[in-house]
Amino acid sequence: MSLTAKLLLSPLLVAQALSTRARLPRLPEADGAREGVVGKGPLLRLLVLGDSSAAGVGVANQAQALVGHLVPVLARLAATRVQWRLLARSGVTSERCLQMLEAESPRVVADVAVVVLGVNDVIDQVPSQRAVRSRESIANRLRNAHGVAHVVFAPLPPVSRFPGLPQPLRWVAGADARRHDRAVAEWAASRHDVSHVPIDLPLNRGVMGADGFHPGEPVYRVCGVVLAEHIAADVWPRLQGLLR
């Protein structure tokens, strides 16, 4: 969206953002274990890192959340024993996620990481290139400090379809999210150890959480399956030889 249009709409956008923040219910992170082992076969150590969508906000427990769908599908498709860990916190931007990861060192060790970030960068109006630099720092730290051989970045969701946001805030935030996602995809394409996985999400009130802003179980299921398929088909076969 052009800067001129944003400036013209800015008083309305600020008012809508404040009223939306006050109106939407504050949903908790999903209950349940944040680490475990699933499946049989060669060991694949998986880290899921990110914000509220990684933490499962919008559903009651982790079995309904992203890891609850990603991990068992990955274990089955890749015929592996997946040792997984979830490191996620509501509200983190890409920069704050990097700080969260740094605070965990050296306790996190993984072969593959799935990173779910971006909506808070859009909300906080972080420039897309700055957000990409933070993603790059996350990928580099995962590789150099935590042994991660490949980092999978989930796409930003189609914010323009979030039923919990009013117009024109939804339209503006959606345009910002698309710009951020394009920047991440272009950067990821330049690296052999990073991938960006597009996911088609036809969002509506029926598949979202109670706030109309966070995912519901149908969305987590789709995302988990698509990410598991990508890792099983495109990432894990290449890594097995390297990790032996």
Topology readout:
Blueprint: H1 3-23, E1 35-38, E2 43-50, H2 52-55, H3 66-78, E3 81-88, H4 94-104, E4 112-116, H5 119-123, H6 128-146, E5 150-153, H7 169-188, E6 194-196, H8 217-243
Parallel strand pairs: 2-3, 2-4, 4-5, 5-6
Antiparallel strand pairs: 1-3
Model description:
This protein is an alpha/beta fold and 244 residues long. The chain has a single domain (31-243), classed as SGNH hydrolase (Rossmann fold, 3-Layer(aba) Sandwich), CATH 3.40.50.1110. Helices cover 49% and strands 13% of the residues. It has a six-stranded mixed beta sheet, with helices on both faces. Strand 5 (150-153), helix 7 (169-188) and strand 6 (194-196) form a beta-alpha-beta unit. Helix 4 packs parallel to helix 6 (128-146). The longest helix has 27 residues, at 217-243.
List keywords for this structure.
6 strands; globular; 13% strand; Rossmann fold; 49% helix
Number of domains: 1
Provide the structure class. alpha/beta
Radius of gyration, in angstroms, nearest whole number: 18 Å
Which CATH architecture is right?
3-Layer(aba) Sandwich
Tally of separate helices: 8
